[in-house]
Structure formats: C-alpha cells, structure tokens
Amino acid sequence: MEYVVKPLVLGTIEADKSGFTYMAFPGTPIVLEVTVFLIQGADKNILFDTGSWAALMAKYWPGKGVDFQTFEEALEKNGLKPEDIDIIVHGHLHHDHVANTIKCKNAEVYIQEEEWIFAQSAHPLQSQYYPPELLKGWKKRLIKGDYELFPGITILHTPGHTPGTQSLAVNTKSGKVVMTGFCCTGHTFEEPAKVLPKNHPFAHWEVFIPAIGTDLNQSYNTTLRVKSIADVVLPSHGPFAKTEY
Questions:
Q1: 199: Cβ–Cβ under 8 A, 6 or more apart, which residues?
Q2: Tens digits of residue pLDDT in 64-121
Q3: Which one, of 223, 225, 192, lies nearest residue 210 by Cα?
Q4: Three-state secondary structure call for residue 240
Q5: Which end of the chain is more exposed for a tag (fewer CB within 10 A), N or C?
Q6: Is 4-234 in CATH node 3.30.450.20?
Q7: DSSP character for 30?
Q8: DSSP labels for 106-173?
Q9: Sign, Cα dihedral of 48, 52, 29, 125
Q10: What is the dihedral of CA 108, 46, 160, 209, to 10 degrees?
C-alpha cells in the first residue's frame, strides 16, 4: 500500500543552528518551518502534528515567528476542515507541534504513554515547552513503542528529544518516508565529517542531534535509526524539497 505525504508549512520561527546540530555552528541563525503533515490514501484523514502560530509561539520561544497561513487555510487547500480529521499522530507534545489539535474535535490523538506522563510534570528545563492549556480536550489514544497504524504506516518510538517522541514511517511512491517526531532540520542528518572543518573534534559523529533533549545518547541513536531506515527523511522543521512525497 502506498500513500501520499504533504508537508503543510504554516510559518517559520527563528533559531540558532547549534540547537539542531548539537554544539556545532553556534551563532549561525536559521529559520525553522512550522509544519503539519497530511497523509492521504488511507480511509481516514491523518495528520502528523498540528503546528502553531507566531503569537502563541512567542510565549514559549525567543525566536521571531512569521505566519504564512492558518491551520484552517492549509487544510482548506486540501479540501478539509479541522472536524474532518480522523487521526492525529503527535511527534511529541511541545507547544509548536500541538497548538491546533483542540480544533480537530473528531480526531483520535495517538501519543506515547511515556510522553503523556512526562508532559504532566515536565522537568524545569522542559516545562515551558508543555503549556498545559494546549493539552486539554483531546480524545487520546496512548500507545507504547512502535505501532502499525495501517499497512504501510507505522508509528516509531524515537525517544531522546523527549521520553515519548515518536516518528511516522509511511510507504510512498518516493519510498519509505519518515517524518521525524523530534525537532530537527535537514542539517541534523548531514554527515559531520563533510560539513565541519578538517580535524574538527566532532567529525567522527555519524549524524548531528538536536541540542534540546531529555537523553542525548538516546537522541543520537534515534537519529541514526531514522536515517538508516528512511529513503526520505522529512525533518519536523524542514526544509522540504517537494510539496508532496
């Protein structure tokens, strides 16, 4: 079974590159894309994450945000309304990934049980990313570990960024597409030896990892896992080469 994956970019937010290439390239500004992923081809309307908007993100992140389109506008371009969404898979429960979930009144929301538990009393280093008012009113389905959602669509437990981070692997005409549940960019998956200066002490790493995490060793292993199984990696914060895969 093959499906279509569409990244719907709602806007951008500023950040430092070192936040996504752990301890490398500090002071290099980058722009992150705030993205919702629409998966088509099943008998259900499926989203991976629901994104946010600039004014809300400003409460929890210091970078400047820009809005391109609303969640509703992005769905409307694909013939959908929030109430048409049947399933939402959340990569993790940080504010910029979940803000529009409450609008999808009919959706069943798939979350790792470990992520939901952590979100209720997050460590102080993480607590600002989990505003409790955004996590209410959902029809939750808590899962543990990898989970086949449909033939050809598998939820992967990919912890490290948060305890219950999960990614979504989807069979498409482009091959196995993996949407990363952890906050990353295309830079995260570059080969350090090819982009760092000669003899750099981090050049032996096989990948970079996000600097924000609850377990950096897990994050490294997770990033390697995703890179090894994906024909196409769609980083949660872009950039994206195409409008559909």
A1: none
A2: 999 999 999 999 999 999 999 999 999 999 999 999 999 999 999 999 999 999 999 9
A3: 223
A4: coil
A5: N
A6: no
A7: E
A8: T-EEEEEHHHHHHHHT--TTTGGG--GGGG-S-EEEEE-S-EEEETTEEEEE--SSSTT-EEEEEEET
A9: negative
A10: -160
Cα–Cα distance, 51 to 10 (Å, whole number): 7
Cα 67 to Cα 13: distance, rounded to the nearest angstrom: 9
Q: What is the reported pLDDT for 28?
A: 97
Taking 70 as the pLDDT cut, the residues of the chain under it are: none
Task: Give the predicted TM-score (pTM) of the model.
Answer: 0.96
Closest to 103 measured CA to CA, from 80, 79, 81: 81
**Residue 227 confidence (pLDDT):** 96
Spatial separation of the C-alpha atoms in residues 117 and 111, rounded to whole Å: 10
pLDDT at 173: 96
If you search the block for the tokens 């409307």, which residue do you land on?
A: 76
Provide CB contacts within 8 A for 152, sequence distance 6+. 1, 2, 3, 170, 171
Half-sphere exposure of 243 (CA within 13 A, CB side): 4
